[in-house]
UniProtKB/TrEMBL annotation:
Keyword set includes Membrane: no
UniProt keyword terms in alphabetical order: Hydrolase, Metal-binding, Protease
Matching NCBIfam families: PRK09104.1
Protein name: Dipeptidase
PANTHER family in alphabetical order: BETA-ALA-HIS DIPEPTIDASE, SUCCINYL-DIAMINOPIMELATE DESUCCINYLASE
InterPro entries linked to this entry: Cyt/Met_Dipeptidase, Peptidase_M20, Peptidase_M20_dimer
Transmembrane segments: none
Top-level taxon in the UniProt lineage: Bacteria
Residue intervals of the Peptidase M20 dimerisation domain: 200-357
Length: 471
């Protein structure tokens, strides 16, 4: 193993300036779900485009969509025969609820005690910054003016609203996005102390179910005891979503699900936390879920269904005293390999149709912005190189992990016709989609070093072929 000092030093020399640039970017409130912030999402794209040009990318373009803009960049390799890497991530951020932020303002971009605070610091502006940082460190350590591989970026502006125009973007720019490997940088690490490489993500199907019992709200004194109550009926239906063992009751939900192999379970056992550690890191009060599986197996290897919201009645007007006309719930179904998002969406519709009784009507919205699960081919040489780069940075062999959330990995794999790898710098403690989001500077530093090693090693790894063998 060659000396890692040049890369480590190159990363360290840029820490202060990279964190300042990240803080500047975090201060742009690029909330894609709020039309009032559409101009800020555009500002974010333009900030990123300018930053990439300043960082040396010879090709940088802002790509408009029918919604919010994406940014494309390309830095050709020093050799025309070198492989090409496409890095995917996003620059839009989730909405904020001001009263949930106690440590800083949501878009303050404050660096404090080894963490940068602010919405998007971890999800996912920090992760994008990490890749730029790695590329600059790779060039500094090798003394080259061009990288060992061609590096392309596709940073979209609509991930937090379901990547609604990603398909059209991929189709329209098919030629520019050609690559040998796709790197999704919108995922999590296990920790900064235990090296682990992500081998896949779950898929996702979202739904909004509205149950109605009347044309309008009715004074409960007039109908109480004789009229249907949509809140009661919706609660009954949601309560039947899982059985006593924690399994999802949608018929056919598990038809394509295979139990984890002994090897997969052993790999997760190498990093599995005890329950108190898990509760402390996630801020939850208890571990629940499908019986017969450990915590990480439930989150990474098994499908799941969650209720994300319930709306109905008038909690702000308790004296109104009505039976509400409607009640709505948000749901998310997480999928594992062999499950297909379109199939699960249809099964959920059939389940609702069978469960809502007469006297009620329902509307089930199943948005088309859903994702299939994806598993990286772990015998691919780019994966082997990433595994070794992680181990090299942290000084220990890398375990295997998954990510419980979703990413458009299957979508990218189909469009680009290339395998997808995952490397992110998020941590459980980063509070994605919650108040007081932050990113660990240490995670970004380790990420930049890891990715710099990976870029340098990739041409030789790809030439050798699967498992490091000569191609």
């Amino acid at each position: 193993m060659t000396d890692r000092a040049p890369v480590r030093d190159a990363v360290a020399q840029r820490t202060d300036v990279m964190m300042e640039r990240l803080a500047q970017w975090v201060r742009i409130p690029s909330v894609s779900s709020d039309t009032g912030h559409a101009v800020d999402v555009t500002r974010s794209a333009r900030w990123l485009a300018a930053f990439l040009r300043d960082s040396g990318f010879p090709v940088v373009e802002e790509w408009p969509t029918d919604g919010l803009p994406a940014v494309y960049a390309c830095w050709p390799a020093h050799s025309p025969d070198a492989p090409t890497v496409l890095v995917y991530s996003h620059h839009d951020v989730n909405a904020v609820i001001d009263e949930e932020w106690h440590e800083t303002e949501p878009f303050a971009g404050v660096l404090r005690e080894g963490r940068l605070h602010g919405r998007g610091a971890s999800d996912a502006k920090g992760q994008v910054m990490c890749h730029v940082w790695a590329l600059r460190a790779h060039l500094a350590a090798t003394g080259r003016r061009a990288p060992a591989v061609t590096v392309k970026f596709l940073i979209e502006g609509e991930e937090e609203i379901g990547s609604v125009h990603l398909d059209s973007l991929l189709a329209r720019h098919h030629q520019e996005l050609r690559a040998d490997v796709v790197m999704v940088s919108d995922t999590m690490l296990w920790s900064t102390d235990k090296p682990a490489v992500c081998t896949g993500v779950r898929g996702s199907v979202s739904a909004a179910l509205t149950v109605s019992a009347a044309r309008y709200d009715i004074h409960n004194g007039a109908v109480s005891g004789a009229a249907g109550n949509p809140l009661t009926e919706l609660s009954r239906l949601l309560g039947s979503l899982h059985d006593e063992s924690g399994r999802v009751t949608v018929p056919g939900f598990y038809d394509q699900v295979e139990d984890p192999s002994a090897r997969e379970r052993a790999q997760l056992a190498a990093i599995a936390p005890d329950e108190p550690e898990w509760l402390a890191r996630t801020g939850t009060f208890g571990a629940r879920g499908e019986a017969g599986f450990g915590i990480l197996e439930r989150v990474w290897l098994r499908p799941a269904a969650e209720v994300t919201s319930i709306l109905g009645g008038h909690p702000d007007l308790p004296g109104l005293g009505v039976v509400p006309a409607t009640a709505t719930a948000g749901l998310v179904f997480r999928l594992v390999p062999c499950q297909q998002a379109d199939d699960i969406a249809q099964r959920v519709r059939e389940w609702v149709e069978q469960r809502v009784p007469s006297g009620f009507t329902f509307d089930l919205d199943l948005p088309a912005s859903r994702s299939d699960p994806y598993t990286t081919p772990t015998d691919h040489p780019a994966f082997t190189a990433l595994e070794r780069a992680i181990s090299r940075t942290l000084g220990a062999s890398a375990a295997h992990m998954r990510n419980g959330g979703a990413a458009p990995a299957a979508q990218l794999a189909r469009a680009v016709a290339a395998p997808v790898l995952f490397y992110g710098t998020g941590l459980l403690e980063d509070r994605w989609h919650s108040g007081d989001e932050r990113v660990e500077v240490r995670a970004l530093v380790q990420g930049a070093e890891t990715l710099a090693h990976w870029l340098a090693a990739l041409p030789a790894a790809m030439a050798r072929g699967p498992g490091g063998r000569a191609a």
